[in-house]
Amino acid sequence: MKIARLSLEQGPRFAVIEEPAQRYHVIAGDPLYSGIEQTGQIFNSDEVRLVAPMLPRSKVVGSIGSFEENMATPSSAGFYLKPNTAVVGADVPVVLPQWVTQVTSAPNLAVIISRPCRDVPAERAKEVIFGYTLVNAVSAPEFTSHSPAQAFGFDTSCPLGPIIDTNLAAGEYEVISEINDAVTRATISVDFDKVVAYVAKVSEVFSLLPGDVVLLGDAMEPLTISAGDDVVVTIGDMGDLRNPVVAS
């Protein structure tokens, strides 16, 4: 099942995506708390605007390592935090702070946490995963050593979306980062035994709340972005996460 969050007159609403017609069936409440109950409202794709499919209740947990490193040795992973104020949806500009000289972008596959948890055993970590989404992890690398909050947590540094996939299949996925006309490709292998081991490790360090987002690691080397760029991140069939880049 794929879930989106729509901007409607009555405010943001979650919806189940009907494929391949790309129609949106609005559901009552928040699926993390209320389950999936359709209201009967249905919209075509040209009638709605998608916003970030989840606003973390407290935080985004990022990883210092790459996706490949984290899946191979989750016990040695290092972490950083992004506040929920860093999260934006597709088509929202990434605003470059005046105080940076370099900003980078890296595609990430991310986990949405479904319920409060702490010290989750790996064999039960699947129970706390609601679904998966895309994140463009934007950072200012010149600050990583002495001011990581600045490096990773500035406003608009966490584009997220456009949808949540609650039934992502294991296997290999092509990762595409397109910056203007320059296309960079990579491949990641999603093994759920390794994913849950990594989520379990994160839960040893942080208490996780419903809606928190856990990045699984950069899927390729970060690429430098500048004002005027148009950045599109794609992993598999989870849609395009597109964000323009602007100066503050």
TrEMBL record:
Coiled coil: none
Organism field: Arcanobacterium bovis
Keywords annotated in UniProt: Metal-binding
GO biological process per UniProt: small molecule metabolic process
Domain Fumarylacetoacetase-like C-terminal: 72-246
Gene Ontology terms for molecular function: catalytic activity; metal ion binding
Pfam family, one: Rv2993c-like_N
InterPro entries: FAH (IPR051121), Fumarylacetoacetase-like_C (IPR011234), Fumarylacetoacetase_C_sf (IPR036663), Rv2993c-like_N (IPR018833)
Protein's name according to its UniProt entry: DUF2437 domain-containing protein
Domain Rv2993c-like N-terminal, residue spans: 1-53
Superkingdom classification of source: Bacteria
Lineage: Bacteria, Bacillati, Actinomycetota, Actinomycetes, Actinomycetales
SUPFAM superfamilies associated with the record: FAH
Similarity field: Belongs to the FAH family.
